[in-house]
Amino acid sequence: MAQRERREEPKRPPVTIKGVRNRLVFYLDDACAFGDILADLDEKLNGAQARLLSGAQMDVSVYTGSRDLSEWERDEVRRALSRTGSLLVREFVSDRGRRRVTYEPRLVYGPVRAGQVVVHPGDLVVIGDVNPGGLVAAEGDVYVLGALRGIAHAGSSGDREAVIAAADFRPTQIRIADIISEPPEERVPGVAYFEYAYIDGDRVQVDKLWALNGRRPRRRSGEGTRGREEER
């Protein structure tokens, strides 16, 4: 009796990309080595699909199957995608309890120079200046422990409670959620103002930083801080 030939099942790629509604979903194979995932990501982001993945900003969900990525691994994936300049990771989702992973605050040492873009899905703290032409963006709050002279975007996923604060508040443009504001009035040269911007109604307002505790006392205790794993 002739022996049937066994057909090998087609090998699944380490990374599969699909468009779902208004975002992209990156499916990571949970059975292959993480190094293979990074290599396949690099090939897709810089190869034939590069033009399709560039252009207008696109939100990204990363589905990891039964694998729970470490914080370092998530940072590596986010860093690879952010290099396109248009892909912003909004969440990591795994099968283990269907958990949605959010982020601890990210600490960045400045200066953030012209042409440099820093994005983070949680709260973002910049120790140093954000120079004209630099951009910092976060789904949570943005804090600049230096001079903010570039562009800052807080609440980038639509959080209107997010704020932008700086030790020297001189931005070229600020944006909170979907509200954009032009620079505040001219400042006295050499005088720094530790202030913060927030949404009041449908306008961005600027106030002295000490007033923030009165507006949002929950932030004092750390409530609302992004960076925990939440059950769906």
Automatic annotation (TrEMBL):
One record GO biological process: regulation of cell septum assembly
Keywords, sorted A to Z: Cell cycle, Cell division, Septation
Key word Cell cycle present: yes
Entries under Gene3D superfamilies matching the protein: 2.160.20.70, 3.30.160.540
Domain Septum site-determining protein MinC N-terminal: 15-92
Residue ranges of every copy of the Septum formation inhibitor MinC C-terminal domain listed in the record: 108-206
InterPro entries membership: CAP/MinC_C, MinC, MinC_C_sf, MinC_N_1, Septum_form_inhib_MinC_C
Keyword Acetylation: no
Self-association and partners: Interacts with MinD and FtsZ.
Family note: Belongs to the MinC family.
Protein task: Cell division inhibitor that blocks the formation of polar Z ring septums. Rapidly oscillates between the poles of the cell to destabilize FtsZ filaments that have formed before they mature into polar Z rings. Prevents FtsZ polymerization.
Stored PANTHER family: SEPTUM SITE-DETERMINING PROTEIN MINC
Annotated NCBIfam families: minC (TIGR01222)
Name of this protein: Probable septum site-determining protein MinC
